[in-house]
Amino acid sequence: MCGIAGLVDPSAPDSDIMLQRMLDSMVHRGPDGEGKYFAPEHSLALGMRRLSIIDLESGWQPIWNEDRTICVFFNGEIYNYLELGRELQSRGHRFRTRSDTEVLVHLYEDRGEQMTSCLRGMFTFCILDLRAHVLFLARDHFGQKPLYYTNGGDRFAFASELKALLTLPWVNRELDGDAFIDFAAWLSLPAPRTHFREIRKLPAGYSLRIQLDRPIAEPRRYWSYDLSVEPDLTKLDNAIDEVDQALNDSVSLHLRADVPVGVLLSSGLDSRTILAYAQELQGGKMHSFSVGFGAEDSELSGAAQTARELGSQHHQLELTASDFAQDINRVVRFLDEPIGDPACFAVLRICELSRGHVKVLLSGEGSDELFGGYEGRYAGMLATMERTQRFRLFAPFLPKARVHASASRWQRFLARAHSSAGSEAVMLRVEALPGDVRKPRAFGTAQLETIATRMHALSSSVVLPQRDPLSTLLALDIRWQLAESLLQKADKMSMGASIELRTPFLDIEVAKVAARVPSSFKLPVGGPGKYILRRVLSRKLHEPMDRPKKGFPVPLQAWFTGPLREQIEDELFATNSFISRNLSPKLLCAAWDDFIAGWDAGRIFFALWMYERWCRAVLK
To answer: Is residue 344 annotated as part of the catalytic site, yes or no?
Structure first.
């Protein structure tokens, strides 16, 4: 696990200094050391910060092939590196280290850019091919590791974190005003968009090929999650067997490390599943870690019960509103760009606690998107989509809807009747503003019109129709919410604590099995969500079919209307606030009054507070 960075800049005589600034901004990602390579004849500088996990002594980067014509800078882990290494050695490749990094060099020699199809892991990497004078960069299938880049004229730069690009004096810091609307509605931005006009994120499952003498960035998709083929695991017992075997294999691979490994444990199904497999594979030696907030729905008691049931060495932490306020600037700094998920605060603190015991944590991200969790949300979306499909029959005979701040039931009906299935899926994924469609808040008429336009535009880029409506929703969440919110939170917060966070559910082989499972085994009519996963875990533990999903719930309503109220009001409603440049102060105040009166909008105001703090930090 590392942070990588590089630049091609013919006009920079001091590229070594620029690269060092980029690496220094990411020391937390790799406190164990750094590696660099310069090629002045190509105006090229590449580097990395290292967090040593595998082959602690000799896995330093860059790692070269036998004749030093190809090298790699790598962030992440390749879990099937032993198997790939044996195959490559049988084909004549000679290895100098025991690291997973070296596999990438020889795999590129052997397969070229098709190498990504062989990888089981989380990764971003940059391969320098001196023979072809190209850089080849790629981001893993699900987006567990981030990669940002900027490209203009004859310059190109990339980094694991956005803040590293901002150390370069020529990078344009102009904000993308429209990106704020996306963020305020969906709480994260779909790749390749960032909050800066000239900086992009490489989407999950994409690669870049950069000619050193003509560095034009044109992303290419090498993989996307496909649920279009009809499922073949149509017998429940067979499906349970296949999922069980895939999870066992994945957890076994994710336990490969030359340092201690633990489990990030909540009281929910996902992390219970991971801990159950890990304990079995490790002979009961696992450490588990949990965090709570003293609220009624705290994770601590349920997590402690799971730890006792499975026999892990358990550690826990309880946090307060004061801790939250104290850490908000650190969260903003590590996140790089605002994400409207308050659990980032909890993940950072629990990773810091675990650092005294382990260097790697396993977590349960990805199971909801693969196996149909979020049952209340998905069930509601599916019911709405089914009704709308009937409305569309009348669309040719109906007028177009008018978008305004007090849309009537009739206007909402017209909008749905004329919507595509894709744009409706994007619409139903709105998590924040304007809130309840029957009473839009904080957005003015022009912003509501922008949101309507964005729904149509996004539907063509993030919605890929699948074999059934649930599969379409799962694929959408994998491309957007999972890659650009949940996994960004996991990566940035764990790296902020210099911890490697691994996600066994997001193994490509587990995903292949999940794709073969019919939707009726994931979310049957009437629930529960992740039904097949509950059945799998019931073979190992007493697993009730109605265990609720929590996910480190932060008591925002109580904190924001109580001890943190004055601080948030002072910042969001200041006359010179960045939020006031994007939202009408009058409409925002009205929304805040509704929140104080009981409207469930803690996550919305957390997201706006994060954006305000982020702007202050980045644009100072």
So the answer is: no
